[in-house]
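Q: Is it fine to ask for two folds in a single conversation?
A: Yes, each is treated on its own. Send the first.
Q: Here.
A: Result:
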Amino acid sequence: MNLIFLMMSSGLTLNTPIEEIFHIGTGCSSSKLAAKGDYIFQAFHWSGYLHLDSQFPLFRKQKHINNYRLGRLASRMAEYDGKMVTADVTSGNMIFEPVLEDGVFRFDCSENDRIAAYPSLSFIDTKVRDTPIMNKKVPLYIPTFECAHGKQIVNIELPSGTSFYGTGEVSGQLERTGKRVFTWNTDAWGYGFGTTSLYQSHPWVLAVLPTGEAFGVLADTTRRCEIDLRKEFRIKFTAEGPYPVITFGPFASPTAVLISLSHAIGTVFMPPKWSLGYHQCRWGYDTEEKVLKIARGFREKGIPCDVIWMDIDYMDGYRCFTFDQVFSMLVSYFSLWSP
């Protein structure tokens, strides 16, 4: 029996507060300009901080005469903002266009939001989401939206008796009716029945209608998203806007919905045979001897085991892409990769 040894990794994100300068635009498409050092960036608010929206500055601040130009720009932006913004909150029915194939629709809060939305990281071909197809059909269920202070709230009302599934990698029951989930990845090593954020985020809901037909909804955003299924027969997404919502169906069955979804986001690869066997994994395998002892124990007791995972114990000071010297066996394996 051959055993495969796998290692986990860790990551770190730092957020730095910066100085806000302007607020421009309307509704979910509103954006900001911010100053950091000598440069002006496009930026957005998140968790009490103003974050740079790009690593590339829009232009550089300069003293003297350019300060005058910047002042004129601020004045013109304020004038533009005053003409365009009539309320802090906008709401209504989302606009739609057919995409991908029959029965699939993209919804946006406005034409401006459609243009302002980030490229899709869900679709295998990003152009498919942004390219309408020739189809005169209209969707059976049209979401409503509310945009307030940069947040986009989407509601979809479905028939009485609808049950909900999906919502990505979460703990708890397979049926998600009455649940509330946050797509906000965490290292949830100690998760319990009520933990709503695990290692992956998938803002997707599969609704099974009382007729037996099925309906799928994808909020195509990578930002922190609340999926609220607590109100009976209603799907509610809340996230920083703008972002499009893609609906699939209703189709004859959940299988038909998932087939259509796979045409958008792709299919699962065929897993290798060893990955389907038993995997032994835990924190605390901090020496090579411990790992080998566990492996020998499985063999001596005749218990099948295809993979033994090591958590971040194997790292040198918990730094990614490093190996502690106590794992000399691993170091010798991976030295073969060195140039």
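Q: Second one now.
A: Result:
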Amino acid sequence: MDNQDDSFISELFEKIEIPAVSADEIEFVCDTAANYLPNTQKKTSFWEIILLELSTVSLLFWAICAAIMVFSAIMIRYASLEISAIAVIAVISPIPLLLCIIELLKNRNPAVTELEKVCKYNITQLYVAKLMIGLFCNLVFLSFITVFAAGRDIDVVRIMLTGSTVMFLLGFIALIVTCKIGKSLPVMGVLAGWILISSVFISQDNYLVEIISNIQLMGLVAFFIISAVLFSYYLYVFAKQIQFLRIGDIEV
């Protein structure tokens, strides 16, 4: 039986023509691999990586953030007094950060996790830099809207604390979903669910807004610190696991 199998395999090899690979082609492949898969990662500072990543953020992301920011500011500044600035900021405050996480997942290929480990740049720093850009954009976003809200005799500190707390809490939840599931669709669900639920609750006679408005300032500070710690902790978890997580939407 073994002799028959050997004969069958030998006949197959005789029928198949295996093309010869020239020395030039082999050298070309080796040179290409040397360029893209260096032995050592390029030494660079985290801030240089952030500047590098800023150039890769899509124009659509900036356009959406700018549009929401302007729309929210107009609503707060010129709409009727029945529209609460706290309500508007609570609804829209986590949007830029969650959009950043969604973009990260949509543009990442989970099939190249092993190759990322030998990337010229530290892959952990690359993805943390992406999130830090989203976080910074979100803080600028909140600051801009808060400045517009200041003209309506509103406690600016309370608004900024409320918006930042919501941003960190939703960012914390989104990072948990990212580490557990690794796809952008569930994070989109978190974003859509938050906007829907918060809009419904806030529209009910502004009851939730009254609760937030009656919380002592130190209580808001405590909530802010807790949310920031939770987000920072799971950002650390994300950074430690990024090289081993199969996260992303693009499959090959």
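Q: Anything structural to flag on that second result?
A: Two points. Residues 67 and 73 are 10 Å apart (CA to CA). The longest helix spans residues 123-149.
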